[in-house]
């Protein structure tokens, strides 16, 4: 059984590779792994004038479901909450978007599925 340290390192690597993949598609990395009480933002990126909060979800395979299925309504609420903290802490007022980057496979053989505007703040 893998330790939580291994899982964290694997998650950080997949997030880094995801950020690089998104950068290759025009987004610019602003911050990663932003921790807040009650939530975490994997990637904060910009797409022109829009601030993009990217949730990176990884599964080695889809036997137990697709990574997109793991972004539940409760998870969305936590992400919106964390995004509001991020905006307040950085005194930002700008257009925002919530994207999900679903990653399947094991490095270096990864498949990326990017859902822009995956959900709205509520």
UniProtKB/TrEMBL annotation:
It comes from the Bacteria. InterPro entries: Restrct_endonuc-II-like, tRNA_endonuc-like_dom_sf, UPF0102_YraN-like. Belongs to the UPF0102 family. It holds the Pfam family UPF0102. The lineage of its organism: Bacteria, Pseudomonadati, Pseudomonadota, Gammaproteobacteria, Oceanospirillales. HAMAP family: UPF0102 (MF_00048). This is UPF0102 protein HOP59_05705. SUPFAM superfamilies: Restriction endonuclease-like.
């Amino acid at each position: 059984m893998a330790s939580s340290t291994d899982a964290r390192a694997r998650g950080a690597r997949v997030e880094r590779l995801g950020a690089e993949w998104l950068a290759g598609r025009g987004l610019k990395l602003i911050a990663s792994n932003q921790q807040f009480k009650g939530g975490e933002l994997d990637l904060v990126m910009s797409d022109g004038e829009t601030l993009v909060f990217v949730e990176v979800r990884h599964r080695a395979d889809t036997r137990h479901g697709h990574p997109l299925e793991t972004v539940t309504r409760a998870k969305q609420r936590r992400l919106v909450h964390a995004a509001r903290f991020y905006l307040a802490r950085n005194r930002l007022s700008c257009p925002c978007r919530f994207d999900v980057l679903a990653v399947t496979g094991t490095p270096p053989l990864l498949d990326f599925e990017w859902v822009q505007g995956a959900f709205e703040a509520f």
